[in-house]
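Researcher: We plan to redesign the surface later, but first we want a full-length starting point. C-alpha coordinates attached.
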Protein backbone atom coordinates (compact mmCIF):
# COMPACT_ATOMS: atom_id res chain seq x y z
CA UNK A 1 0.00 0.00 0.00
CA UNK A 2 1.23 3.54 -0.71
CA UNK A 3 1.73 6.29 1.84
CA UNK A 4 0.81 9.97 1.62
CA UNK A 5 2.84 12.29 3.87
CA UNK A 6 0.74 14.93 5.62
CA UNK A 7 2.26 17.13 8.35
CA UNK A 8 5.16 14.66 8.79
CA UNK A 9 2.75 11.72 9.14
CA UNK A 10 2.82 8.93 6.55
CA UNK A 11 -0.85 8.12 5.92
CA UNK A 12 -1.36 4.53 4.81
CA UNK A 13 -4.05 4.37 2.14
CA UNK A 14 -5.45 2.19 -0.61
CA UNK A 15 -7.49 3.17 -3.66
CA UNK A 16 -9.78 0.73 -5.43
CA UNK A 17 -11.58 1.38 -8.71
CA UNK A 18 -11.96 4.48 -10.87
CA UNK A 19 -14.60 7.16 -11.09
CA UNK A 20 -16.43 9.27 -8.53
CA UNK A 21 -14.34 9.42 -5.33
CA UNK A 22 -15.76 8.03 -2.09
CA UNK A 23 -13.71 8.79 1.01
CA UNK A 24 -14.08 5.99 3.60
CA UNK A 25 -13.36 6.78 7.25
CA UNK A 26 -13.15 4.02 9.86
CA UNK A 27 -13.85 4.35 13.58
CA UNK A 28 -11.63 4.91 16.63
CA UNK A 29 -8.91 2.20 16.99
CA UNK A 30 -9.80 -0.12 14.06
CA UNK A 31 -8.21 0.44 10.63
CA UNK A 32 -9.20 0.60 6.98
CA UNK A 33 -10.18 -3.08 6.98
CA UNK A 34 -13.40 -2.13 8.76
CA UNK A 35 -14.62 0.01 5.86
CA UNK A 36 -13.22 -2.28 3.17
CA UNK A 37 -14.99 -5.26 4.71
CA UNK A 38 -18.45 -3.72 4.54
CA UNK A 39 -18.14 -1.46 1.48
CA UNK A 40 -16.20 -3.48 -1.09
CA UNK A 41 -18.98 -6.10 -1.52
CA UNK A 42 -21.23 -3.23 -2.65
CA UNK A 43 -18.91 -2.42 -5.55
CA UNK A 44 -18.80 -5.93 -6.94
CA UNK A 45 -22.02 -4.91 -8.70
CA UNK A 46 -21.36 -1.18 -9.13
CA UNK A 47 -18.71 0.41 -11.30
CA UNK A 48 -17.68 4.04 -11.64
CA UNK A 49 -16.43 4.74 -8.11
CA UNK A 50 -12.95 5.42 -6.77
CA UNK A 51 -12.95 4.06 -3.22
CA UNK A 52 -10.39 5.75 -0.99
CA UNK A 53 -9.55 3.84 2.19
CA UNK A 54 -6.95 5.03 4.71
CA UNK A 55 -5.74 4.50 8.26
CA UNK A 56 -6.22 7.42 10.63
CA UNK A 57 -3.15 8.52 12.64
CA UNK A 58 -2.28 6.05 15.39
CA UNK A 59 -4.36 3.32 13.75
CA UNK A 60 -3.51 0.55 11.33
CA UNK A 61 -0.25 1.26 9.52
CA UNK A 62 -0.40 5.04 10.04
CA UNK A 63 1.73 6.14 12.96
CA UNK A 64 0.69 8.92 15.29
CA UNK A 65 2.44 12.28 15.35
CA UNK A 66 3.50 14.86 17.90
CA UNK A 67 1.39 17.48 16.14
CA UNK A 68 -1.84 15.48 16.43
CA UNK A 69 -3.28 15.84 19.90
CA UNK A 70 -6.98 16.52 19.40
CA UNK A 71 -9.85 15.60 17.11
CA UNK A 72 -9.46 19.05 15.54
CA UNK A 73 -5.92 18.01 14.61
CA UNK A 74 -7.18 14.67 13.31
CA UNK A 75 -9.72 16.45 11.11
CA UNK A 76 -7.06 18.76 9.69
CA UNK A 77 -4.96 15.74 8.72
CA UNK A 78 -7.97 14.17 6.98
CA UNK A 79 -8.84 17.40 5.14
CA UNK A 80 -5.26 17.76 3.91
CA UNK A 81 -5.21 14.11 2.89
CA UNK A 82 -8.37 14.59 0.82
CA UNK A 83 -7.03 17.80 -0.75
CA UNK A 84 -3.82 15.94 -1.69
CA UNK A 85 -5.34 12.73 -3.05
CA UNK A 86 -8.28 14.28 -4.96
CA UNK A 87 -7.43 18.00 -5.24
CA UNK A 88 -10.38 20.17 -6.22
CA UNK A 89 -12.71 17.21 -6.81
CA UNK A 90 -16.17 16.66 -5.37
CA UNK A 91 -16.65 13.40 -3.49
CA UNK A 92 -18.88 11.18 -1.37
CA UNK A 93 -18.24 10.42 2.28
CA UNK A 94 -18.84 7.26 4.28
CA UNK A 95 -17.85 7.21 7.95
CA UNK A 96 -18.30 4.71 10.77
CA UNK A 97 -18.55 5.72 14.45
CA UNK A 98 -15.72 8.22 15.07
CA UNK A 99 -15.32 8.32 11.29
CA UNK A 100 -18.91 9.54 11.10
CA UNK A 101 -18.05 12.32 13.54
CA UNK A 102 -15.07 13.30 11.40
CA UNK A 103 -17.33 13.21 8.33
CA UNK A 104 -19.56 15.86 9.91
CA UNK A 105 -16.43 17.92 10.50
CA UNK A 106 -15.49 17.53 6.84
CA UNK A 107 -18.97 18.69 5.80
CA UNK A 108 -18.64 21.71 8.09
CA UNK A 109 -15.45 22.66 6.21
CA UNK A 110 -16.01 21.34 2.66
CA UNK A 111 -19.81 21.14 2.22
CA UNK A 112 -19.60 22.44 -1.35
CA UNK A 113 -17.42 19.45 -2.31
CA UNK A 114 -19.45 16.69 -0.62
CA UNK A 115 -22.19 15.31 -2.88
CA UNK A 116 -23.45 12.65 -0.45
CA UNK A 117 -22.71 11.24 2.99
CA UNK A 118 -23.37 7.93 4.72
CA UNK A 119 -23.03 7.62 8.49
CA UNK A 120 -22.68 4.13 10.00
CA UNK A 121 -23.38 4.07 13.76
CA UNK A 122 -21.95 7.60 13.95
CA UNK A 123 -20.69 9.37 17.04
CA UNK A 124 -23.07 12.28 17.55
CA UNK A 125 -22.16 13.34 21.08
CA UNK A 126 -18.43 12.96 21.79
CA UNK A 127 -18.79 12.77 25.61
CA UNK A 128 -19.73 9.18 26.41
CA UNK A 129 -21.49 10.08 29.66
CA UNK A 130 -23.84 12.48 27.80
CA UNK A 131 -25.07 9.92 25.26
CA UNK A 132 -28.54 8.37 25.41
CA UNK A 133 -27.66 4.68 25.35
CA UNK A 134 -29.62 1.44 25.59
CA UNK A 135 -28.32 -1.28 27.88
CA UNK A 136 -26.16 -3.86 26.13
CA UNK A 137 -28.30 -6.83 25.11
CA UNK A 138 -27.53 -10.06 23.25
CA UNK A 139 -30.25 -10.64 20.64
CA UNK A 140 -29.01 -13.82 18.93
CA UNK A 141 -26.53 -16.34 20.30
CA UNK A 142 -25.33 -19.63 18.85
CA UNK A 143 -24.32 -21.34 22.08
CA UNK A 144 -22.76 -24.30 20.30
CA UNK A 145 -20.47 -22.03 18.33
CA UNK A 146 -19.62 -19.90 21.39
CA UNK A 147 -18.29 -23.04 23.10
CA UNK A 148 -15.55 -23.20 20.44
CA UNK A 149 -14.08 -19.84 21.48
CA UNK A 150 -11.68 -19.30 24.36
CA UNK A 151 -12.61 -17.29 27.43
CA UNK A 152 -11.02 -14.06 26.18
CA UNK A 153 -12.68 -14.34 22.76
CA UNK A 154 -16.09 -14.95 24.33
CA UNK A 155 -15.76 -11.94 26.61
CA UNK A 156 -14.68 -9.67 23.76
CA UNK A 157 -17.34 -10.99 21.35
CA UNK A 158 -20.15 -10.64 23.89
CA UNK A 159 -19.13 -7.13 24.95
CA UNK A 160 -19.01 -5.72 21.41
CA UNK A 161 -21.77 -7.49 19.51
CA UNK A 162 -25.43 -8.41 19.79
CA UNK A 163 -25.55 -11.19 17.17
CA UNK A 164 -23.23 -13.93 18.37
CA UNK A 165 -22.92 -16.39 15.49
CA UNK A 166 -19.97 -17.75 13.56
CA UNK A 167 -20.34 -15.40 10.57
CA UNK A 168 -20.36 -12.25 12.67
CA UNK A 169 -17.45 -13.57 14.73
CA UNK A 170 -15.31 -14.15 11.64
CA UNK A 171 -16.04 -10.69 10.28
CA UNK A 172 -15.62 -9.02 13.66
CA UNK A 173 -12.26 -10.76 14.13
CA UNK A 174 -10.97 -9.99 10.63
CA UNK A 175 -12.40 -6.52 10.00
CA UNK A 176 -12.53 -4.90 13.43
CA UNK A 177 -10.55 -6.66 16.17
CA UNK A 178 -7.56 -7.12 13.86
CA UNK A 179 -7.18 -3.36 13.54
CA UNK A 180 -7.86 -2.61 17.19
CA UNK A 181 -5.08 -5.00 18.23
CA UNK A 182 -2.38 -2.95 16.46
CA UNK A 183 -3.60 0.55 17.37
CA UNK A 184 -1.21 2.88 19.21
CA UNK A 185 -3.11 3.16 22.48
CA UNK A 186 -0.64 5.59 24.04
CA UNK A 187 -1.05 8.01 21.14
CA UNK A 188 -4.83 7.56 21.05
CA UNK A 189 -5.12 8.36 24.75
CA UNK A 190 -4.20 11.95 23.83
CA UNK A 191 -7.11 12.11 21.40
CA UNK A 192 -9.50 10.61 23.94
CA UNK A 193 -8.79 13.58 26.20
CA UNK A 194 -9.80 15.96 23.36
CA UNK A 195 -12.37 13.77 21.61
CA UNK A 196 -14.86 16.50 20.68
CA UNK A 197 -14.39 19.28 18.14
CA UNK A 198 -13.71 22.76 19.47
CA UNK A 199 -16.23 24.21 17.00
CA UNK A 200 -19.91 23.74 16.14
CA UNK A 201 -20.21 21.19 13.34
CA UNK A 202 -23.99 21.29 12.76
CA UNK A 203 -24.30 24.99 12.01
CA UNK A 204 -26.13 24.73 8.68
CA UNK A 205 -28.21 22.30 6.63
CA UNK A 206 -26.50 19.71 4.45
CA UNK A 207 -28.75 19.26 1.42
CA UNK A 208 -27.07 16.36 -0.37
CA UNK A 209 -28.48 12.81 -0.20
CA UNK A 210 -27.47 11.26 3.11
CA UNK A 211 -27.95 8.09 5.14
CA UNK A 212 -27.84 7.47 8.87
CA UNK A 213 -27.61 3.78 9.78
CA UNK A 214 -28.33 3.31 13.48
CA UNK A 215 -28.40 0.18 15.65
CA UNK A 216 -31.36 -0.19 17.99
CA UNK A 217 -29.12 -2.12 20.39
CA UNK A 218 -26.04 0.08 19.91
CA UNK A 219 -24.79 0.62 23.46
CA UNK A 220 -21.68 2.54 22.32
CA UNK A 221 -23.15 5.57 20.55
CA UNK A 222 -26.86 4.73 20.69
CA UNK A 223 -29.45 5.83 18.15
CA UNK A 224 -31.54 8.51 19.87
CA UNK A 225 -28.90 11.24 19.72
CA UNK A 226 -28.73 10.99 15.92
CA UNK A 227 -32.34 12.13 15.68
CA UNK A 228 -31.24 15.48 17.09
CA UNK A 229 -29.47 16.31 13.82
CA UNK A 230 -32.34 15.20 11.59
CA UNK A 231 -33.34 18.74 10.60
CA UNK A 232 -29.78 19.49 9.49
CA UNK A 233 -29.98 16.72 6.88
CA UNK A 234 -33.19 17.33 4.88
CA UNK A 235 -32.22 14.69 2.27
CA UNK A 236 -31.31 11.99 4.78
CA UNK A 237 -32.75 8.55 5.35
CA UNK A 238 -32.61 7.65 9.05
CA UNK A 239 -32.79 3.88 9.53
CA UNK A 240 -32.88 2.36 13.03
CA UNK A 241 -32.24 -1.37 12.68
CA UNK A 242 -33.25 -4.03 15.16
CA UNK A 243 -30.84 -6.89 15.84
CA UNK A 244 -27.99 -4.41 15.38
CA UNK A 245 -25.42 -3.05 17.79
CA UNK A 246 -22.38 -0.89 17.12
CA UNK A 247 -21.22 -3.33 14.42
CA UNK A 248 -24.42 -2.95 12.44
CA UNK A 249 -22.64 -3.45 9.12
CA UNK A 250 -21.83 -7.08 9.94
CA UNK A 251 -24.92 -7.92 12.01
CA UNK A 252 -27.44 -6.66 9.46
CA UNK A 253 -25.45 -7.20 6.29
CA UNK A 254 -28.37 -7.48 3.86
CA UNK A 255 -30.13 -4.35 5.10
CA UNK A 256 -26.82 -2.53 5.19
CA UNK A 257 -26.13 -3.42 1.55
CA UNK A 258 -29.63 -2.46 0.43
CA UNK A 259 -29.61 0.90 2.18
CA UNK A 260 -26.11 1.81 1.00
CA UNK A 261 -27.11 0.95 -2.57
CA UNK A 262 -30.26 3.06 -2.27
CA UNK A 263 -28.18 5.97 -0.96
CA UNK A 264 -25.78 5.65 -3.90
CA UNK A 265 -28.76 5.65 -6.26
CA UNK A 266 -30.02 8.90 -4.73
CA UNK A 267 -26.61 10.52 -5.15
CA UNK A 268 -26.51 9.22 -8.73
CA UNK A 269 -29.84 10.88 -9.50
CA UNK A 270 -28.52 14.35 -8.65
CA UNK A 271 -24.98 13.85 -9.89
CA UNK A 272 -25.59 12.24 -13.23
CA UNK A 273 -22.61 9.96 -12.64
CA UNK A 274 -22.29 7.26 -15.26
CA UNK A 275 -22.16 3.88 -13.55
CA UNK A 276 -23.15 0.37 -14.44
CA UNK A 277 -24.91 -2.29 -12.43
CA UNK A 278 -24.38 -5.93 -13.25
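Model: Full-length starting sequence:
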Amino acid sequence: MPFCTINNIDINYEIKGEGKPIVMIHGFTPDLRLMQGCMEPIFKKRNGYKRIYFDLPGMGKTKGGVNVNTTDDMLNIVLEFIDTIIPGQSFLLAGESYGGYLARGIIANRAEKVVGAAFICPVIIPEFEKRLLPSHAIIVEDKNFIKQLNEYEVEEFRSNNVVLVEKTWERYKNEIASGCSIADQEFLSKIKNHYGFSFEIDKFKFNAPSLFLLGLQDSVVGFKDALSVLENYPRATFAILDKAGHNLQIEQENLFNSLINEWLDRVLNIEGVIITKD
